[in-house]
Amino acid sequence: MRYLPKSDEERRSMLAETGAASIDELFASIPAAYRLDRDLQIPRQQAESEIVAYFRAAGEKNSTSLASFLGAGAYRHYRPVVIDALVQRGEFLTSYTPYQAEITQGTLQAIFEFQTMIAELTAMDVANASMYDGSTGAAEAVMMAARITGRNKAVVASTVHPEYREVLATYTRHQGLPAAIVGYDAETGRVDLDALAAAVTGETACVLVQSPNFFGVIEDIPAIAEIAHQKGALLVVSIAEAVSLGIVRPPVEADIVAMEAQSFGVALSYGGPFCGVIATKEKYLRQMPGRLAGQTVDGAGNRGFVLTLATREQHIRRERATSNICTNQALVALMATIFLAVYGKEGMRELAEHNLAKADYAARTLASAPGAKLRFTGAPRFHEFVLQTDEQPAEWSQRLLDSQIVGGVELSRWYPELHHCTLWCATEVIPCTTIDRTARLLAAQAVETNRG
Asked: Rounded CA gap, 122 and 103, in Å?
């Protein structure tokens, strides 16, 4: 009764209000075949102490000791403890939305700082107050490009995250915006520039690429931009690993940048909530979806923050809305803002260098195992790499799991041609000793086979 206060007296009162004499009479309009005439088959009610004990026991089944080489769009980085200490303050955690500027100055200022930092990192003129995540950000960027150009076709590199491409297909299915998929170069892992040039036409609204791409390889953004711009198309660059911007040259040639900011202090949390971003040139500002917070002064000359732009259907006529997203990720964006403020410019570069060095060590070490070799070695990469093994991934993967290690992501589920290939990620939280131990476990089966 603590959580469902429906006493017999309250039930009688509600029935009287509806004009029904009983529960059966209330539901008489539902055919008997669809009415449940027995009690629900659920466990008995439990005391609060029993419920707490149940969930504690269930939580103990989650192992926190596993070393993980998973990446593929969701990355494990160290989260400074100050992030949770600040975002759990009531004025941030419980505030809903910054419509009333006079009582939400803190939220608006945090959003403004977030936008400023993202614009600096991406080398764009302006960034919005966040999107849901990187996948929806990429899809919204493609539709934004279609509005700007007045064209209705897109060209997408197959090296864009497969799940991002699935989200894009869902968004554009009823938008009359077909997307042509362009393959990759087998040696470099970059998008095939010749195929890309052939696919881009005078009807192409934009070219969508990801860099670092799904294989961890850094794309040739200047060359791709030239191909797109020659035909009047816009270039949309998706960034799934935001930490890469600490060392990788930002995509200055892009017209729109769509990014996932999860790496900036946002916990993996079983896949979300994350924080997406769209950044663009100033001339495209009014076609940007979502919100934009701005800085101004009041009548007395004091600095203040306001919601400057909100081109969505809650604020303007539906036919003029740029997006139907219903909110931004203000709290999660605040996590990213705190993370960036803690690390600073030099700290971000050092973090990226650490990731680059750790992944290079992991790639060389794991590739030294018998029957293993690196793929896509003809282009620079960040902290992910593709490893091909003679042994079936399912076999060595179980061997690693038995030793509390989660190996790479098998690529054949999205790229059938990449047999026995897996995508590995090594960030700053993976110790070199774990990398060495993983290499020994990978080599174990090959050694046994040779002995046999």
From this structure: 31
